[in-house]
Specification:
mainly alpha; elongated; 206 residues; single chain
């Protein structure tokens, strides 16, 4: 028992036991969890929950739009991994495999409830995150498509691969999100058919 009125001593806490500062990836992991839960990603709340200042958050990513773009890309990249792994041995034809993977990915993205909910809640903002030329999502989709198109053995050498990848991604966006853009129902099947036409034309096939 402590004597007199003195309080119990505080336990010794070595400096090494303090929690480590979060790295950038930790913040995206948290934002990703919030996104899947349908929780709004507020930069101030995200900074507080991550144990960093809001200024640090903005210094790392620049804007809320970029943070959400990183989250959305994480979702799409995971879907790409699953789709490509599932179809890796289905065909020896790289062009056909790319078209099939693109179509499966379009269906997967368009029917993923947290993502469709995000776009439906604020269509203009949602499309800006997913399809803007300044978006990390569109840029990385183009990178992915260009990397796969580079593997096509019979691609016309006069065609710039990145230009073709850009056209493919934009066509996909137009049909996958057509209900938001034009009011027509989303049509992943048409997106796949148009991508197949582009790939076949670029490969000299009919």
């Amino acid at each position: 028992m402590a004597s007199g009125g003195s309080s119990s001593p505080e336990p010794d806490v070595p400096a090494s036991s303090t929690l480590p500062k979060p790295v950038r990836e930790d913040v995206i992991v948290l934002a990703h969890r919030w996104f899947l839960e349908g929780r709004r990603i507020d930069m101030q709340q995200l900074a507080r929950a991550s144990g960093i200042g809001r200024a640090t958050l903005y210094r790392w990513w620049g804007s809320r739009e970029v943070v959400i773009g990183e989250v959305v890309w994480r979702i799409i990249a995971e879907a790409i991994g699953r789709v490509e792994a599932r179809n890796s041995g289905v065909s020896d034809d790289p062009a056909g495999r790319f078209v099939r993977n693109f179509g499966t990915l379009a269906d997967t993205v368009r029917t993923f409830e947290p993502l469709t909910r995000f776009v439906a809640d604020d269509p203009e903002y949602g499309l800006r995150v997913l399809t803007s030329g300044y978006s990390v999502v569109q840029g990385r989709m183009i990178d992915w498509a260009a990397a796969r198109l580079t593997d096509l053995p019979d691609l016309d050498p006069r065609i710039e691969v990145r230009d073709l990848a850009y056209a493919i991604v934009r066509v996909g966006e137009a049909f996958v999100w057509s209900d938001i853009i034009t009011g027509d129902p989303p049509q992943s099947g048409k997106a796949t058919a148009m991508v197949e036409l582009l790939v076949c034309a670029a490969s000299g096939k009919r």
